[in-house]
């Protein structure tokens, strides 16, 4: 691999043939394995700079204080989701798919910007049409994409998502390696990281090197700069070598985070089958320096835990079409508010209001197909809350 650091070009000599890695995970989200033949793609003839796009500005419709001083930097993967146009069919039976940009950290970045906040994305995509498209989508959504890199030899990751009749999902991933897995420490934009108010990440970037080392260095750099760390494990078990390696990897950086969002299924997974509704079980996951633990419960809302109080906030009832991105929209909803005033976690009434807003963000997202296309604006969320039945 040759890296020309003067212009931050991203080169990789790794074979780009994708594969599918899969297993079955208990819970509402299921992963399937389907044999396939790798497709070939044309590639641009010349490398492209890592930071080729200009900075984006926060929207004009956001909460007070949504500017560079409330910047949320999201680190990790960005990919293309292919979502079927008809629910309740297998991938083989689906008549057509809707192409939708996705990837949990990127979803959060766009979600924050769409709510009027200030966000940036750091990650790597292929130097291919999908990669260029994703960079443009970030820019169009006012997300700072200066931290993106492009790899001319590894492709942008793809995920085919089967939607069950209830809107829940099955995934099939095309990677190994995809470009996001190949981000290196030397390609990180530390200037953006240190400007952040919150640095947000997941666990998929911990699975393989060199991205794993880049992730750890980026998080440490943010922590050393006094940036608040936000962690959503976003378990995708088929992408890990084994269940045990996933558990170990997710927990390896647990104690660094100031804010953690986790699902009921992930609690069961990390505690090896214990009851996710038992507060005693949940409290085992609270480390001494954790400021806020959030447990999402899908349509039922969420639970919250701080050092001083805990409770539950009910969800907004909607008809689910596609649950892809709902958790990311929730994270965007809460981080967009914490970034402008982190002290709200010290006042339970204000935190509950913020979580009602976040719940509504997640609820509105499931009413449309795809993740990024379905993320709501601040106006839409406030309108939904105003019209919600008490």
UniProtKB/TrEMBL annotation:
Catalysed transformations (reactions): D-fructose + ATP = D-fructose 6-phosphate + ADP + H(+)
GO CC annotations, alphabetized: cytosol
Chain ranges of the Carbohydrate kinase PfkB domain: 71-377
Pathway(s) where this gene product acts: Glycan biosynthesis; starch biosynthesis
InterPro entries: Carboh/pur_kinase_PfkB_CS (IPR002173), PfkB_Carbo_kinase (IPR050306), PfkB_dom (IPR011611), Ribo/fructo_kinase (IPR002139), Ribokinase-like (IPR029056)
Protein EC: 2.7.1.4
Gene Ontology molecular functions: ATP binding; fructokinase activity
Assigned keywords, A-Z: ATP-binding, Carbohydrate metabolism, Kinase, Nucleotide-binding, Transferase
Residues covered by region (Disordered): 39-65
ATP-binding recorded as keyword: yes
Name by which UniProt lists this protein: fructokinase
Organism: Nelumbo nucifera (Sacred lotus)
